[in-house]
Amino acid sequence: MKIAPSVLAADFSNLECELKDIETGGADLVHLDVMDGTFVPNISFGPPVIQSLRKVTLLPFDVHLMTYHPEYYFDSLGKIGVDMISFHQEAVIHVDRTIHDIKSRGIKAGIALNPGTSLSALELVLPLLDFVLIMSVNPGFGGQKFISYTLDKIKVLKKMMKNLNLQIPIEVDGGVSSANAVLLKDVGADILVAGSSVFGAADRKKAIDVLRS
Ligand code: DX5
Ligand code: ZN
């Protein structure tokens, strides 16, 4: 199980220390939430901040684009050197093209699905993906309550992959905590994104260990 702390819940006045803290605490990835104030009702940060953060940690960068026109950001994210980019199926008309756009830059491509979006939206492009991001809250804010029907959704996705002979990592994002990490592992989640449950804890290493175990 990989743990990807979400910077959205970190202390923005001290991001270098926050990233070093999760790096020594054993995080596997850094989850970076980019919001445009239109696709989701909030804004966060974009490529300039991600570029600065790239200098202070060796951890892989997992960028979650909660934006319309995710392709606007691919050039700059490619130059910065991020490892994974997910975009929302709901935000894009040319899903196939967008996946290829990301992969052509040597970056792992993932599709994010809102809680209310059916898995059928993934069916045709699943073999092209490097990972799938299942939202377990409505995107836009940290610290929300985990939506438990997404557990069944992950189970069904796992079955879909099995039927297609695919093994694609499933990332789960939103409301992940020690209260649901075991359930998520049981249904087949591979990467847990955790904002408030990691950065809200005084001991980040302990919080990461608890989620992983
Ligand atoms: C929500 C973001 C999440 C968020 C998770 O829109 O995509 O990555 O930071 O935060 P928590 O873990 O606090 O729900
Ligand atoms: Zn996210």
From TrEMBL:
Binding site for substrate: 6, 64, 140-143, 173-175, 195-196
Needed co-factor(s): Mn(2+); Fe(2+); Zn(2+); Co(2+)
Alphabetical list of NCBIfam families matching this protein: PRK05581.1-4, rpe
Gene Ontology terms, MF aspect: D-ribulose-phosphate 3-epimerase activity; metal ion binding
Organism, scientific name: Dialister invisus DSM 15470
UniProt superkingdom: Bacteria
EC number(s) per entry: 5.1.3.1
SUPFAM superfamilies: Ribulose-phoshate binding barrel (SSF51366)
Family: Belongs to the ribulose-phosphate 3-epimerase family.
Record keywords, A-Z: Carbohydrate metabolism, Cobalt, Isomerase, Manganese, Metal-binding, Zinc
Name this protein carries in UniProt: Ribulose-phosphate 3-epimerase
Function recorded in the entry: Catalyzes the reversible epimerization of D-ribulose 5-phosphate to D-xylulose 5-phosphate.
Cofactor note text: Binds 1 divalent metal cation per subunit.
